[in-house]
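I would love for you to help me understand the pair of lines that follows before we discuss the fold together.
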Amino acid sequence: MGINLASYVGATQVRRMVLGDDDKQPTSEQLEQMKELVGHAMRDGAVGVSTSLEYAPAPYAKTDELIALSAVASKSGGIYATHMRNESDSVLEAIDEALRIGREAHIPVEIWHIKVAGKANWGRMPEVIAKINAARAQGMDVTADTYAYTAWFNDLSAFIPPWAHDGGVAKLVERLKDPAMRDRIRKDMLTPSRDWDNEWQEIPSPEAILIGVVQNPQLLPLQGKRLSEIARMWNKDPMDALFDLLIQDKGFTYVAVFGMSEPDVALVLQQPWVSIDNDSSGTSPEGILGQEHPHPRAYGTFPRILRKYVREEKKLTLEDAIRKFSALPAQRMRLTDRGVLKAGMWADVVVFDPATIRDLATFDHPNQLSQGMEYVLVNGVPVIDQGQMTGAKPGKVLRGPGYVQ
C-alpha cells in the first residue's frame, strides 16, 4: 500500500460481535467476551480503542461498558479515541464522559474532530477549550484533533433518533415506511433535546445538508445537491424528502452538514494540544471513488491549512502547522520512530513549496487534487516525485505497543 496504516479496535465493532445491533446491555458474561475481543485486537497491534457514540448501535453503550473496554486497551499501552456522544447542546457533558473514561480506565484520551455543532452553540468553543485545559492542568492526558472546515460529513441516518435504529439499518428503513413510526421520528426531530445529538435542530435550514455519497445507482444524480433542492424536485416537505431518500438508499447515504462557525474552528485549530486529521476515507478523482462526491477535506485538509491559516490569515506559523501534521500525532499514536526529521527515524518526508501549496477541492467540486506538493517519501521511497505519483507502495502496517508477534 502507498501509506502507513495503524488501526484502533472499535468499541462498536466489538459490541456488534457480541450483541448485534440491538438496544440492550451486555450481561457480565457478554462484557467479558467483549473485553477478550479488545485484548485480542491489542495483541494483534491495535493502537487503542475507539468510539463513535453518535451512530447506532454505539449510543446504546453505557459509560461503564466503555470504561471496561478501555481499561483492557490501557494495559497494552493503548489510547481511547472518541467521536463523542454529543457535539452540540450537551458537548460539555460529553467531554465529561470522555474524561471519566480516561480517569477510570487509566488511559490517554483523544477527542476526534473536536467541534461545537449547531447554530445555537456557535461561540461556545472557549468553554470547551477551558474545560480541556482544566483537565490537562490537573494532569489528565487529553488531546484533540480537527480538520478545520465548517461542515462535517456523516451518515444521513444520523438525523434519525437512536431508538429508531434498534436492530440495525433494515429495521430503521422499516420504521421510516411505517406512518405511525415516521410521525414519532418526525416529532422527535422537531423537539429540541439534550438527550441525543439532534442534527435537525443544529442546521440553519435544509440548505445546510449536501448529499455526498449514495449506494443506490439510481440516486447518483442527487450527489452534490442540497436537501432543499431535492425536496423541491420531489415536491415534498424537506423532512419527508430526507426520510424517502434514506428508504430509497437503504439507509446508506452520506452527507456534508454545514453546522459550525469559522471563529470556533479557527480557535480550536490554534490550541497547542490539537493536531490535524482529515476524517475522510481515501479517495481519487478517477475510478470507482471518482464517482463519489466526498467532503473536500478528503483532498484539501492539509494544503488548505497551509494556504488559509498559515499563508493568508497567519493564524498559525508554518512550524506549528507542520508540528500539528507530523510530530504531535506521531507522539499521540506512540510512534516513537516517526514524526520528525532525525537520523535513524523512518523517512516519511514531504517536500512542498510554502508559497504555492493550495487546495482546489470545494464542496461543489470536491474531486480535485491539491497543488504544490513536489515530493512525498514513505519509508524512504518516493510515492510522489516532482508532483507525479510513482505507483510505489512502500507503506507498512504500524502496530501498537501491545503487539505480540
